[in-house]
Design a protein that fits this description.
There is one protein chain. With about 270 residues, the chain is of the alpha+beta class. The chain folds into three domains: about 100 residues, CBS-domain (Roll), CATH 3.10.580; about 110 residues, CBS-domain (Roll); about 40 residues, no CATH class. It is built from nine helices and 15 strands. It has a four-stranded mixed β-sheet with strand order 1-2-3-4. It has a four-stranded mixed β-sheet with strand order 7-15-14-13. Strands 8-9-10 form a three-stranded mixed β-sheet. It comes from Methanosphaerula palustris (strain ATCC BAA-1556 / DSM 19958 / E1-9c). It holds the Pfam family CBS.
């Protein structure tokens, strides 16, 4: 597990969480209140609720946890079963660490597992054109549930990868002013005397996490690390560890994209 856990406390600020995720590249942080773990905030939460600023409404409450004496197989099974990326490690109601999919990938990299990835661990995927606006990419990623999407040029050549991490790094905070109209009646209101009405408006500030409208090619990772279908499990884990990535495109002999290998699928090797 990771013992030096980056966390946030309630009451806190959404913008502070965003800064942490941008600076560290991690995918989520535990939320603490009065020394007790009460939730988790992830990149998905920020992207799916761009208007929300309160940590209590952004976070997933009562997260699934694990004890320090559990095995990595126990951790892998929980992560796979609940389709999550991290498990807070709790002892005597205190947060003492965090075990993530990435931590398990690091372990697999040293296990010399020679099973090939073909079929068992690879996933079908789709790709996006490199000129697609980031705003559209964000919506596609939200709808599809994919954490990363390959990017192709007009010749169907693999040019890059865009992930949630890259989207978060591209986000900006947009501040604007909204106006609510509490006017009594309308021009056609028969009860309005000589069209005299009380006009009441309320102005309020809006702070929103926003993706710029630039093309995805300007935010994607261009130096793509890829693997063939006959690559071995530990070999792929080592590539992920060294490149600090969560996924690998799978290519054929013509270097054409045929599938994706996600770290969350690769850790299933520990569940057997």
């Amino acid at each position: 597990m990771t013992s030096d856990v980056v966390s946030v406390e309630i009451p806190g600020n959404r913008d502070d969480v965003l800064k942490i995720l941008k600076r560290t590249g991690i995918s989520g942080v535990p939320v603490i209140k009065e020394g007790r773990l009460i939730g988790i905030i992830t990149r998905k939460d920020l992207l799916r609720k761009p208007d929300e600023t309160q940590l209590g409404l952004l976070m997933t409450p009562d997260p699934i946890t694990i004890g320090p004496g559990a095995t990595i197989r126990d951790a892998a099974r929980l992560l796979v079963k609940h389709n999550i990326r991290r498990l807070p490690v709790v002892e005597d109601d205190s947060l003492i660490g965090l075990i993530s999919v990435s931590d398990l990938i690091h372990a697999i990299a040293h296990m010399k597992i020679t099973d090939v990835i073909k079929g068992t661990y690879t996933s079908q995927t789709f790709a996006i054109w490199e000129e697609t606006p980031l705003t559209v990419v964000g919506k596609v990623m939200e709808i599809s549930g994919f954490d990363a999407i390959p990017i192709l040029d007009s010749e169907n050549t693999l040019k890059g990868i865009i992930s949630e991490r890259d989207l978060i790094r591209s986000t900006v905070i947009e501040d604007s002013v909204g106006v609510s109209d509490f006017s009594n009646g309308t021009d056609d209101d028969e009860w309005t005397w000589e069209s005299i009405r009380d006009n009441h408006t309320l102005s309020y500030s809006i702070s929103k996490v926003q993706l710029p409208k630039k093309a995805v090619k300007n935010a994607m990772v261009k130096n793509v690390v890829a693997v063939p279908l006959n690559a071995e499990v530990s070999e792929c884990a080592l590539k992920m560890k060294r490149a600090r990535i969560d996924q690998l495109p799978v290519i054929n002999g013509d270097k054409r994209l045929i599938a994706m290998l996600f770290d969350r699928e690769l850790i299933k090797v520990l569940c057997n």
